[in-house]
Specification:
globular; 13 strands; 8-stranded antiparallel sheet; 3-stranded antiparallel sheet; alpha+beta; single chain
Length: 255
């Protein structure tokens, strides 16, 4: 089994975590010559977002949107993930701008990851003028607050494909198994480990650094303490988390 300790203080990890936890972000594209209102100007849009297993951003875009037309002419783009919610001064909050090239992806597993994060998008995902896009990340600008900014190379920020392959291959079957056979454990992850409320919990995503849980309209991130790159280690981690949640439940019931 492969498990590597995670350094939660590392800027690359914090950047990935911001992206993985986000449901929305700000997309900046370069105005195409064919778009008279934005030609040659930076153009910003609010978009819903998910991530691939390596933390590269995933988008579902309409072909008639001006940002999609910009991407067709020039795929270079920036996606800003804002983690400043709850800060009295937003400038003190973390944020990460992922920069790279957006390209359409036909990988159905990535489509499912996006739709699991945004189930309402299933209503129009099958329309002919909508396509899924994945960013090939080339650099990341992470800001952790005042005087805490750093430029990171994309290949050092997103995870290596080899570290994600086994988890990508097992994800669909593992999610079905957890939600069908271990629904109590999934609920315990949300209520006892994350301290959230709700009754109808589902696991909607797995990656080497954690899992995504949905309850109602909310999506919550449960991070692992180690990076996991194979199926055996993933099973062991989920069992360990279930035991940890049970232990917390027993302590709370004690007088």
């Amino acid at each position: 089994m492969t498990q590597t300790p995670i350094n939660p203080g590392a800027s690359a990890y914090r950047s990935r975590r911001l992206a993985r936890a986000a449901g929305k972000a700000y997309l900046c594209t370069i105005g195409a010559e064919s778009q008279p209102d934005t030609a040659n100007w930076p153009s910003a849009s609010l978009v819903t977002v998910a991530t691939a297993w390596d933390a590269s951003p995933l988008l579902l875009l309409s072909g008639i949107a001006h940002h999609t037309r910009n991407i067709a002419a020039n795929g270079r783009a920036s996606i800003l993930f804002d983690g400043s919610a709850g800060y009295a001064n937003p400038q003190e909050g973390p944020r990460a701008a992922f920069m790279g090239r957006l390209k359409p992806t036909k990988d159905k597993r990535l489509h499912q990851r996006f739709l699991a994060r945004h189930p309402e998008a299933a209503r129009y995902a099958g329309f002919g003028n909508f396509d899924f896009y994945r960013m090939q990340v080339e650099r990341v600008h992470y800001v952790g607050g005042f005087a805490a900014a750093i430029w990171l190379k994309g290949r050092r920020t997103t995870l290596a494909a080899a570290d994600c392959k086994a988890i990508a291959d097992m994800e669909a079957a593992a999610l079905e198994h957890m939600n069908r056979d271990h629904a109590v454990a999934v609920a315990d992850y949300g209520t006892r480990l994350l301290g959230k409320r709700g009754k109808h919990w589902r696991m909607i995503g797995l990656d080497p650094e954690g899992c995504d849980l949905a309850c109602g309209h909310g999506v919550h991130r449960l991070d692992f303490e180690t990076r996991i790159t194979d199926a055996g280690a993933m099973r062991a981690e989920l069992v360990q988390l279930a035991e940890k949640a049970k232990s917390r439940g027993r302590r709370r019931r004690q007088p």
